[in-house]
Write a structure and sequence with these properties.
The structure is a single chain. This protein is an alpha/beta fold. It folds into 2 domains: about 10-145 and about 280-320, Metallo-beta-lactamase, Chain A, CATH 3.60.15; about 150-275, Rossmann fold (3-Layer(aba) Sandwich), CATH 3.40.50. Helix content is about 20%, strand content about 25%. The chain is built from 7 helices and 19 strands. It has helices at about 55-65, 150-160, 175-185, 200-210, 265-270, 285-295, 305-315; strands at about 10, 15, 20-25, 30-35, 50-55, 70, 75-80, 85-90, 95-105, 105-110, 130-135, 170, 195, 215-220, 230-235, 250-255, 275, 295-305, 320. The strands form 3 sheets. Strands 7-8-9-10-11-18-19 form a 7-stranded mixed sheet, with helices on one face. Strands 1-2-3-4-5-6 form a 6-stranded mixed sheet. β7 and β8 form a beta hairpin. The radius of gyration is 20 Å and the shape is globular. The protein starts with 8 loop residues before the first strand and ends in an 11-residue tail after the last strand. InterPro entries: MBL, Metallo-B-lactamas, RibonucZ/Hydroxyglut_hydro, Xnuc_lig_assoc. GO terms for molecular function: exonuclease activity; ligase activity. Keywords: Exonuclease, Hydrolase, Ligase, Nuclease. It comes from Sphingosinicella xenopeptidilytica. This is Ligase-associated DNA damage response exonuclease.
């Protein structure tokens, strides 16, 4: 039998706490917003007050200007209305958090977006047992099983070494993915300068200000094409096939995304080297996480909700789809 809590409500525009008059990742501006992470489908501007990790608040300020609100450390407890809130790591991007909500002995965990794989740019996911677990379902189909990132980075570096007359152009989302790819390239021994599109500069600078080591990053502007032969260049996915990319010498076009598992998506993007690198949990991570947390009920947000709801019910776990609006697969 499904659990029904009067103190937490799911609306198309977000999850609402009536007694605290607070919304979690609302799709429209509200008086009080609890934000799980800085991607624009979860963190929007215009809220009167924001509760988030200090890193997420800094990311929102970088994107939207000064924010009125409070930055919290992981594990710090704050009471809003009659609900105790603490933020614990989600492992998605820098500052990403799960909202742990407790009231009169009941606990709900709103995960936001998350992954279970190691990531040198953010704190690992922390499983929290609860009564209700609100989970994403971006890659909630058994076909999505992400390979180890080390193998994808090794393929990339091998292609660079085998074709030294070509640049390597990697499409990577500006928040989280670009910095993770950079950090993994460093971890795998690439200590040469990396070149970045101007759209990545501000968030890379912020990551470094917040303590993430990225090594030497150089702007591509003003460089002659010949200077980029054999070099690695990172840009937002939207730049892969526009005029900006044509300045590069015969680039090997790559894209880092969980969607690169789907060959048709790679072809549609004109991607020569798909890199299956995701900041979201794959099918095994989603199901393993639910088993580990052992919730009494699961609420499923954006993505392949029906498949994950079906799996939960097969495991005798009550589950339902929330059908939240305004959620995207990634942040470009």
């Amino acid at each position: 039998m499904a659990i029904r809590f009067s103190w937490i409500e799911a609306h198309p525009t977000g999850i609402y706490l009536p007694s605290a008059d607070a919304w979690i990742d609302p799709a429209t501006p509200v008086d009080r917003a609890i934000i799980t992470h800085g991607h624009s489908d979860h963190a929007r501007g215009g809220h009167r007050a924001v509760l988030a990790t200090r890193e997420t608040l800094a990311i929102m300020e970088c994107r939207y200007g000064p924010q009125s609100g409070q930055g919290l450390g992981y594990g710090e407890v704050i009471r809003i209305g009659d609900v105790d809130l603490r933020l614990v790591p989600a492992g998605h991007v820098l500052g990403s958090a799960q909202a742990v909500l407790e009231r009169r002995g009941e606990r709900v965990v709103v995960s936001g977006d998350y992954k279970r794989r190691p990531d040198p740019t953010c704190v690992p996911f922390e499983p929290v047992p609860c009564d209700v677990f609100v989970t994403e379902a971006t890659f909630a189909l058994p076909v999505f099983r992400h390979p180890p990132i080390g193998g994808e980075i090794a393929r990339l570096l091998a292609a660079q070494q085998a074709q030294p007359d070509r640049a390597v152009l990697i499409g990577a989302y500006a928040l989280g993915k670009a910095q993770r790819v950079i950090a993994e390239l460093r971890r795998h021994g690439h200590d040469r300068p990396l070149f970045i599109h101007g759209a990545l500069q501000r968030l890379c600078d912020l990551y470094r200000e917040l303590g993430v080591t990225l090594g030497e990053l150089l702007p591509i502007s003003g460089l002659k094409p010949a200077a980029l032969a054999g070099e690695i260049v990172l840009a937002p996915p939207s730049a892969l096939n526009d005029r900006w990319s044509r300045r590069l010498p015969d680039p090997i076009t790559a894209m880092a995304s969980g969607w690169m598992r789907v060959r048709q998506r790679a072809r549609q993007r004109g991607v020569e080297m798909p890199l299956v690198i995701s900041d979201h949990a794959d099918w095994d991570e989603l199901t393993t996480t639910i088993r580990e947390i052992a919730p009494r009920e699961v609420w499923v947000t954006h993505g392949r909700e029906d498949a994950l709801v079906h799996w939960c019910r097969e495991q005798q776990i009550p589950a339902r789809e929330l059908a939240l609006i305004g959620r995207e697969d990634e942040d470009d």
